[in-house]
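Intended use. Records like the one below are meant for learning the mapping from a protein sequence to its folded structure. Do not use them to infer anything beyond what is encoded.
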Amino acid sequence: MKESDKIYEKQAAANAKPMFRYEDPYVLFNSWMVEAKTSEPNLPNAMAIATVDENGLPDVRMVLLKGIDVRGFVFYSHAGSAKGEQLKQNPKAALNFHWKSLRRCVRVRGSVEPLTKLEVGKYFATRPRDSQLGAWASQQSKTMRSTNVFEKAINAATDKFSGVAVPLPPGWKGWRIRPEQIEFWRERPFRLHDRLLFEWDTNSKEWTKRRLYP
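Structure written out for the chain above:
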């Protein structure tokens, strides 16, 4: 048997374990994230985030999940970026996590709220200094005439904050996606895949769940 076949069979066996017993989607998500951190070769917290522009045209890109709790999923970017402008106009988004090594996906849909300046500042202070300086130098999503312009802006920021802590740049923000739906998908042989959908009931303030056909 090929090594790849052994890996596939091992993961197929893992994906046969009961999933429906979970009552809280965050507990299930965190258990999958723990597994992804040991199996994904790079960035297990990478997620696609989809937004919609003023013309109703969808837009999607990859960002990094930087926090999760019962309030939702957190990420950071610049308010002047395409996603920042789109979220300002229409504060709703969808996420997709895809862990190829686990043969699993998680889809999230919900409303989006900005984090407080205190929350954003605390996270920004934990970033590597070069990333902090890059945030000051970059006019994210705007047209760049040449890489030299960007490099000069980085050098200027480096000189400006030499010997001091790099402060939070204007417009640098964080958002929290408050899920209305969280769907878990995992591969099983012969396309008999598992799909489990959690939906937030605004009346009971509880999660409901149901299986979906693959």
